[in-house]
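Student:
Attend to each token:
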Amino acid sequence: MEKCSFHNSHLKKKTVYGHQIVLALLSCDGLVLPYCIEIYDKNNMSKIAIASNIIKSLPSPVNKGYVLCDSWYSCKEIFGASTESGYTYIGAIKTNRVIYPNGHERLGAKLNRYARSLNKEVFGLVTVKDKQYYIYNYVGKLNDMKKVSIVLSYPKDSFRKEGCLKAFISLDTSVSILDILNHYIDRWVIGVPRKGYLIHPVKDRSKKKVRTL
């Protein structure tokens, strides 16, 4: 079949043969619409380039808008496309990304290593939809970005357990920690959030959101 190829399946944890698509949903005032569906053809254009073009094609938000993406798309090109289109960016970010907190200004530190170096006392314990999380907020430099807000999060019963650290980023440092998490989870109107990270989204009818998967 045309444009079929081998792709890595995170669900099946192996390489599968078929189509892979880049999908953008537009959400505003409680209405969710499929804005754009593009077949990924690795011989033609990267997924980052496809997503960037989709974001640049968006109408400017009337009030305030967010581009919501998973960690695959949290990169300089998507950050720039979002800003250029009048949106701020909120998304997951891989825990091997390098930040530059106090004491690491020259060489930086990976998020996962930095999280392990922090005392438990600096994490705040919050309750969201009957679940508790240890949360720490870093505001500062990321490679290619002068100032961002990054939330490090562990489920209460899995603090510092291998593979349990999740990180989320906002280009708008004025957005609160809980709003970052709530907005990100709101991205999953087409799927089910990962177990242990079901956070009820805040309803805000004045904001337009775009999800890119």
